[in-house]
Amino acid sequence: MAGFEDHAVTRETNPKIISNARRYTGNMVVAGVLYTVFVFAGAYATRIDDLPRWALVVAALAPLLPALLMLRAYVIFLNGIDEFQRRIQTEGVLIAAAVVGFGTFAYGFLEEWVGLPHLPLLWVLPALIGVWGVAVCILRMRYQ
Questions:
Q1: Nearest residue to 76 via CA among 26, 133, 3
Q2: Are 77 and 24 in contact (CB under 8 A)?
Q3: In whole angstroms, what is the distance from residue 85 CA to residue 88 CA?
Q4: What is the pTM of this model?
Q5: Which residue, 91, 70, 86, 67, is CA-closest to 17?
Q6: What sign for the dihedral angle of Cα 100, 60, 57, 66?
Q7: Residue 2 burial class via C-beta count within 10 angstroms: exposed 0-12, middle 13-18, buried 19 and up
Q8: Burial label, 6 (beta-carbon count in 10 A; 0-12, 13-18, 19+)
Q9: What is the pLDDT of residues 59-117, one digit of tens each?
């Protein structure tokens, strides 16, 4: 893919790009607020005595809905950016998947065979997103 090496990562002033970024931000804010509400409501629900098990299951899974809205917002954003920016995002996801995938794989052996403390699966997705963000920042600096 010729031309990637010469492409400087700059803040675009193209109205289409700005509109895409604003839509992404708005969608993520809405999803983030819903996520926060669902997490706090779920945490509160776990403290209620005599709550049926099915209600606890619903409360535990409810935060997935806004998380899926976040994924949807990202896919819409990804479809609205240029090929170079899409390449950076894709490389960032690949790096994050490798780091978190192999990291959790290695830690699983350490848990089982060495007796290290158990880490809940709840932290895998936040770790993936965090490493992805760091990877994208590094990749952008590489192309500047």
A1: 26
A2: yes
A3: 5
A4: 0.79
A5: 86
A6: negative
A7: exposed
A8: exposed
A9: 999 999 999 999 999 999 999 999 999 999 999 999 999 999 999 999 999 999 999 99
